[in-house]
Write a structure and sequence with these properties.
With about 190 residues, the protein is of the alpha/beta class. The protein is built from five helices and eight strands, in the order βαβααββαβαβββ. The chain has an eight-stranded mixed β-sheet. Pfam families: RibD_C.
Length: about 190
Amino acid sequence: MGKIIAVEHLTLDGVMQAPGRADEDTRDGFAYGGWAHRYDDPVQAEVMGRHMSAHRGALLFGRRTYEDFAGYWPRQVGNPITEVLDKTEKFVASRTAQGPLAWQNSTWLTGDAVTAVPELLRRRPDRNLVVLGSGDLLHSLMRHDLVDEYLLLIHPLVIGSGRRLFDGVDLGDLQFADAVPTSTGVIIASYGRR
């Protein structure tokens, strides 16, 4: 059966909120958005490119992250990541939103994500689901022990506040798989469930 793989940017103190832009997610007065870009380097691009090209399956988003990605990536003409994301099947979980999804190859998940996601994997056992960002959705999946792998980009930065990946979730021990340091001090680490 396919796996659920979480790909997350984190600070050393576990903050996952708004790595991309200052206005990405200001909930709870978060004022540190856009913290990840200064750590971009060719090593990170190569490792993430390899991960994306090896990925077989679909993307899984919470509504908020989906809307953010859909508002940005389809407009990045000439970027090879855009082509990959456009062609990849995307599933969107939401407790509130419905209606048409503007980004090609996008589908709403029906029902509660904790039930719908495992059912989706059962229907397509040869495919993985990769969760990008989507903290609320990811926390729900983690609380129900549904995430199989974590690909964490751990940035050498302590923010002190913000939404954290592991808040309120007790996963126990994870199985270390691999780690690659970048030239800017980011550690790209892979873990699986024991």
